[in-house]
Specification:
By secondary structure, the chain is mainly beta. The protein is 0% helix and 44% strand. The chain has strands spanning 3-7, 10-12, 18-25, 33-39, 46-51, 68-73, 78-83, 92-99, 115-116, 120-124.
Length: 126
């Protein structure tokens, strides 16, 4: 069955960096669109970054452009989110998501993804 497991979260000071990993199994990563979302306490889950399975394009939320980078290691079936220059407002549970069919206009929509990991906590605080 399809499984996604996030890791790499933790506590970091503002300006620091973290590298999140999403280990996948049960599907062909190269054939799926993948994304990262995040949810802060009391807030709606929001889009962070994605990779299109059709074009390889990588849209980012405006709030993370220039600081975060999404990538895939197909050989290791792993999705990476490199987060640099972290800010307190980045504090959230980060979720990895995947779907076999996502049109370009829906890459930023959580409803487009049918497979989700359990999440990993990222806390940015001094």
């Amino acid at each position: 069955q399809v499984q996604l497991v996030e890791s790499g979260g933790g506590l970091v000071q503002p300006g620091g960096s973290l590298r999140l990993s999403c280990a996948t199994s049960g599907f062909s990563l190269i054939r799926y669109a993948v994304a990262w979302f995040r949810q802060a306490p009391g807030k709606e889950r929001e889009f962070v970054a994605a990779i299109s399975q059709r074009t390889g394009s990588t849209p980012y939320a405006d709030s993370v452009k220039g600081r975060f980078t999404i990538s895939k290691d197909n050989a290791k079936n792993t999705v990476i989110l490199q987060m640099n220059n972290l800010k307190p407002e980045d504090t959230a549970v980060y979720y990895c998501a995947a779907a076999g069919v996502v049109i370009m206009s829906q890459l930023r929509s959580q409803s487009a993804y049918n497979y989700w990991g359990q999440g990993t906590q990222v806390t940015v605080s001094s």
